[in-house]
Amino acid sequence: MADTPREIEALIEILARLPGLGPRSARRAVLHLLRRRGALMAPLAQAMQIVAETARDCLTCGNIATSDTCAICASPQRATGEICVVEDVADLWAMERAGVFRGRYHVLGGTLSALDAVGPEDLGIPRLLSRVRDEGIKEVILALNATVEGQTTAHYIADALRGTGAAVTTLAQGVPIGGELDYLDDGTISAALRSRRSF
Amino acid sequence: MADTPREIEALIEILARLPGLGPRSARRAVLHLLRRRGALMAPLAQAMQIVAETARDCLTCGNIATSDTCAICASPQRATGEICVVEDVADLWAMERAGVFRGRYHVLGGTLSALDAVGPEDLGIPRLLSRVRDEGIKEVILALNATVEGQTTAHYIADALRGTGAAVTTLAQGVPIGGELDYLDDGTISAALRSRRSF
């Protein structure tokens, strides 16, 4: 826009690239920040600077960390012997929010894709295999997304793990808690029916 | 969330305070930034830092600027003699997007409110009066929001401007371009009918 300071336009443009924000909401967010320059904008800029400088991938599991080993891999409270394989750090966070899994993770960073030339190396699958052998892992839980790509990758990993002696499991499929049958897709209902259990 | 680096949690918390973002979308935005640390997060942090350090209010009109006088007040291309009064910088930006007004602005920064103890001084109304006198303003366009607060403030300013010799005008009210009568409120339809013009 003409006559808006160039620095502010640049900021709006970068913010608009965040998911969930477009040019319009980025503009609104920047105005909000401009009105609270001292109380909000400066601390936000600083917090972002610090994270941009310190964040890195955990060398063991691929989780986001501020040192070479993430808090989960470093924690003596986490169960050894169990690895949960997830596609993405977002999935790891979702698992952690559920607060049920107490083992460690392996973050693939994507799914296998011939089209995008994403192979096992890119997802750290060889590294997962060495971890399973070296850490004496008894169970590998495949918590990949219930998409075609996720399940293809899960099958590949399950095959690769054959012979390591580790049990390979996957998340149960069925009706979500609070879910209404009327709003569920056919695939979920079929899966829930096939895996029905005694009441 | 346990086991997420403290710096990242701090960043999510601050981002979640932006309008249009909540804790969930702030988390998603931060993950997006973390995946593009070099290409997106570092430039964003820097752009924000620069704006936080350089942004200030234009001493003349109250617009956001990077020097004591904003680009609009400093521009020789803008018509002198006309001031458009807006509540907020967001409104100024909206006017500029429309690209029709070529004069200068006066940003109030709010509306009069006895409840919140916002008086004429807080909105820079005395400063507006001196500008009208000193700059030889011929027309003051009141582009305040069509809310009770906006219109109360508009009436106050119109009264205060009486005696300066400047014409006081306000934006036309009516059916928005592309608007469908069926979806318009009664007040807008009444206003549009009262201000009807020959076709």
Can you lay out the helices and strands and say which pair or pack?
2 copies of one chain form a homodimer.
Chain A: H1 6-15, H2 23-35, H3 37-54, E1 56-57, E2 64-65, H4 71-74, E3 82-86, H5 89-98, E4 104-107, H6 125-134, E5 139-142, H7 148-161, E6 167-170, H8 186-194
Parallel strand pairs in A: 3-4, 3-5, 5-6
Antiparallel strand pairs in A: 1-2
Helix pairs in contact in A: 1-2
Characterize this entry briefly.
Chain A has 199 residues and is an alpha/beta fold. Helix content of chain A is 44%, strand content 11%.
Task: Please describe the structure with a list of short key phrases separated by commas or semicolons.
homodimer; 199 residues; alpha/beta; Helicase, Ruva Protein, domain 3; Dna Topoisomerase Vi A Subunit, Chain: A, domain 2; 2 domains; 4-stranded parallel sheet; two-stranded antiparallel sheet; 6 strands
